[in-house]
Write a structure and sequence with these properties.
alpha/beta; three-stranded parallel sheet; 12% strand; Rossmann fold; 143 residues
Length: 143
């Protein structure tokens, strides 16, 4: 894991309960903070980009919400957007069903990732072995 992290350090975007949203910031500010920091993007441009991406995800209504008031799907989308904001993002989803507690399978996850396809270079999902069926994996030869 350490080698993976150091190889992708500048492009790594983590979606994990271990890396929560900043609770006293709105979703817009949580997401816009990344291009402001990494690309020195001015607030108006970073905010406008965030709003466009939230709109694309069908989540424009959460822009001013803060972490405690988000539904699980809203929280996941905010965390994913934050992770995807680094250039050529390498997104790591750490046990996504710990965030997406209302989702029975990976459909919402796939659909959301597809909407951000041009922002994300690579996606890695780390999850427990027993969750594989939620991703549509039923016959794993490594099993």
């Amino acid at each position: 894991m350490r080698a993976f992290t150091s190889t992708h350090r500048s492009r790594l975007g983590l979606v994990s309960l271990e890396a929560p949203l900043i609770s006293n910031l709105s979703v817009r500010r949580n997401v816009a903070l990344i291009p402001q920091y990494h690309q020195n993007t001015a607030w108006p441009a970073a905010s406008a980009l965030t709003d466009r991406l939230l709109q694309r995800l069908g989540m424009a209504s959460i822009a001013e919400k803060r972490n405690p008031s988000l539904a699980p799907e809203e929280r996941f989308c905010a965390m994913l957007l934050r992770a995807a904001m680094v250039q050529e993002a390498v997104v790591v989803l750490d046990r996504p069903f710990g965030i997406l507690t209302n989702q029975p399978d990976g459909r919402f996850l796939r659909e959301t990732l597809e909407k951000l396809d041009e922002l994300i270079a690579e996606v890695y999902i780390f999850d427990y072995h027993w969750e594989k069926e939620r991703y549509g994996v039923v016959d794993d030869p490594k099993d």
